[in-house]
Design goal:
With about 100 residues, the chain is α+β, with helices and mostly antiparallel strands. Helix content is about 35%, strand content about 35%. It has a 4-stranded antiparallel sheet. Strand 2 and strand 3 form a beta hairpin.
C-alpha cells in the first residue's frame, strides 16, 4: 500500500468553507479513484492547519492520482484561495491496521 499526505495552512476565516468543499465535493471525487482505500482529514483549528492522508492499494494507483494528474489538479484547484504553504508527499505504508 501507498499513502499521500497533503499538509497546508488554511487561509484564516476560510476553514469552515474549505471543510464543506472537502466533504461535499472532494471526498466523493477521491473515493471514485481506482485503487483508493481510505481518506482521512485532520485539522488543527488553533493553527489553521490541515492534513489529508489518502491510502492507495499500490504505488501505481497513488502515482496515477499524484501531481501533475488531472485528478489532483482538480482537487487542489477547487481549494485554490483556501490553502497556503501546501506540501504533498508520497509514502510506502510499512505497517498499519484495518
Amino acid at each position: 500500500m501507498h499513502a499521500r499526505t497533503i499538509t497546508a495552512n488554511i487561509v484564516p476565516g476560510r476553514l469552515e468553507e474549505a471543510l464543506q468543499i472537502f466533504r461535499e465535493e472532494i471526498h466523493p471525487m477521491i473515493e471514485k479513484q481506482p485503487g483508493h482505500i481510505s481518506t482521512s482529514l485532520f485539522i488543527d483549528r488553533d493553527r489553521n492547519r490541515a492534513q489529508t492522508v489518502t491510502i492507495w492499494e499500490s504505488r501505481a494507483a497513488e502515482q496515477a492520482t499524484s501531481e501533475p494528474s488531472d485528478y489532483l489538479s482538480k482537487v487542489l484547484g477547487r481549494l485554490n484561495g483556501f490553502l497556503a504553504n501546501r506540501h504533498v508527499a508520497s509514502w510506502e505504508v510499512a505497517a498499519g491496521s484495518g
